[in-house]
Amino acid sequence: MNPEVKDLQPKLKEVLYDCAVEIRATKAALFLYDSIGRYEIVAEYGFKGAIRQSVDQKDPVVDRCGRGRSAFFVNGLSAEPRFSEIMYESASDRLLAAPIYNRGQLIGLIDMRDKAQKQLFDSADIPKAQKIAERIAELFAGRNVFGQRFISLSHPDDPQNVVPRSTIQSAPLPSAAADVTRAPVSSPARTSSPIPAVPAKALTDQSARVPRLSALIIDGRTAANRIVLPPAPESLTENELSAIRDVLRSILLIPSVAVVSFTAFGHMGGIQEVAAKAVISEEASAFLQSKVNVWLAKRGESGGHTRRNVQLPLGPGTASIQSSQMVKVFTAPVTAGAFRSLYLTVAFSANPDRVSHELLTAMLTQLQMAIERSVDRTSLQSLRERAAIALLEPDFTKYPELRSHSELVASRSEALARYLEMSPGEIENVRIAALVHDVGMRLLDYDRLYRKPDISLDEIHLLREHTTVGAALIEPVLGHEIARAVLCHHERWDGTGYPNELAGEEIPRMARIIHVCDVYESMISTENYKPAQPRGAVLAMIAENGGTQFDAAIANRFIEMVR
Ligand SMILES: [Fe+2]
């Protein structure tokens, strides 16, 4: 790589990341001319290695950039066949490319792929892409990096053009700052420790190190990726299967579709989910399977054992489906996440028309998205639950009673949320909030007060602060909604609870659910400082206090569920 380009690499990467910020491209690569007839990659993000390292002038993207001289986009692998291989190689299906011109010469190009949230690139992205390309070109304005005829007289060391090397290195943290992070929150000695004086020259250097917003985003996302991204799952789970079944039922509504099947070899021991308009005869099943096998063999792929599950959402029908009714059978690979060996097969009872074809294509995309969304939700869910448990771990280790209480309240609240037919997202929130509802105890005088039988009024007031302290502690980690449920889990329906004396529906529903479960689990517990109460008596108390302490509707449903 040209040493001048190498020097500029951090700056180039920073500008390249504007493709994520301004266009929301999930992948982008910058290729620059290497003066010997090729364009080499100098910066990229998102491709994870699945991108060509250099391209020549015959490359279709270079060729098109050279001819059109402006940015262009291609949405879909089949939209322009000459780009399909390039897209396929990088596991992408949408491309936006912008040429970079300097003194009339094509000095490079930006190759962007796959806009976030499966959106298509559109004409509004063209000027944005062009502007980013211009920003790259500006970095080379005063240089003669690409062997061009016109040699600029501007000095390459011009501070306007050169990014100090120091920007590449991160400034070392003073050791005192590192200590502060480990210091107990309440330690006054730490907060008063003198901050070392910083020489004026160093301050100037520091200001030169202040990165642009986009550089901060790169750092942030890189760090977040390390924390957030769990390894991509390789096997489907029951969660994905239920999303898949929903889409299969929708496919069955396409005119003249008789049977649709989703096959996943090697997942959960091999599975085949089938939806059909009527019962399928043995002979028709075998016919369908043979069609899939032929299709697999043609692609050089092999099948394997599968366990079949058939659903008949429209009922068993008057007559069973025969192979003679399967006029056309289509199979397509399903590409979702990191999963392998997924196939969708659709049997039509008549030649499908154009609309049916289009519907089927749309449904295939829908199926892929449903699988990916389901995986994301599962990963996110486990991540949030892990964060909740991490918050509690120090207390859980010290106080096994608190652990068992929190887990009991979490399971009971989750069960009640399910019983109330809340959405999966709400159920998950209820569970997490219930798990951390007493986390604020950590910062209070918990050690001493936890098992104390003769607790004074002042101590009760102190313990009551656990709702506000807990909410503040978890808000940055688990978000506002969970924090609000924690804050309000001791509010009462009649407005006599704490900390804010909210009443009725001012109290978040999640908090009302946790409140009743918390009271129930505390009263029946044998680990409490008070003697355990019989279940029947506790349920009677809850019934009696519906409308005063508890939301009456929630209390009644709770009693129904527990009885
Ligand atoms: Fe509490």
Domains (count) = 3
Count of DSSP strands: 11
CATH topology of the largest domain: Hypothetical protein af1432
User: Biggest sheet, open or closed, and with what strands and sense?
Assistant: 6 strands, antiparallel
Percent range of helical residues: 40-55%
Global geometry: flat
- Low-pLDDT runs of 5+ residues are 149-217, 219-231
The chain-level structural class is alpha+beta
Strand-helix topology:
Elements: H1 3-16, H2 18-23, E1 25-33, E2 38-45, E3 54-56, H3 60-68, E4 72-75, H4 81-89, E5 94-102, E6 105-115, H5 125-139, H6 175-182, H7 188-191, H8 200-209, H9 213-228, H10 238-251, E7 257-264, E8 271-276, H11 282-298, E9 307-311, E10 328-333, E11 342-348, H12 354-398, H13 400-419, H14 424-435, H15 446-449, H16 457-464, H17 466-478, H18 480-487, H19 509-524, H20 535-544, H21 552-562
Parallel strand pairs: 8-9
Antiparallel strand pairs: 1-2, 1-6, 2-3, 4-5, 5-6, 7-8, 7-11, 10-11
Helix pairs in contact: 1-5, 10-12, 12-13, 12-14, 13-14, 13-19, 14-18, 14-19, 17-18, 18-19, 19-20
The protein binds fe (ii) ion (FE2).
Write a structural description:
The chain has 563 residues and is an alpha+beta fold. The protein has three domains: 3-139, 2-Layer Sandwich (Beta-Lactamase); 238-373, Beta-Lactamase (2-Layer Sandwich); 397-562, Hypothetical protein af1432 (Orthogonal Bundle), CATH 1.10.3210. The chain is built from 21 helices and eleven strands. It has helices at residues 3-16, 18-23, 60-68, 81-89, 125-139, 175-182, 188-191, 200-209, 213-228, 238-251, 282-298, 354-398, 400-419, 424-435, 446-449, 457-464, 466-478, 480-487, 509-524, 535-544, 552-562, and strands at residues 25-33, 38-45, 54-56, 72-75, 94-102, 105-115, 257-264, 271-276, 307-311, 328-333, 342-348. A six-stranded antiparallel sheet has the order 3-2-1-6-5-4, sandwiched between helices. α13 packs antiparallel against α14. The longest helix is centred in the C-terminal third of the chain and has 45 residues, at 354-398. It is flat, with a radius of gyration of 31 Å. 31% of the residues are buried. Mean pLDDT is 78; it is low at 149-217 and 219-231. Bound molecules: fe (ii) ion (FE2). Residues 437-438, 466, 489-490 line the site of fe (ii) ion.
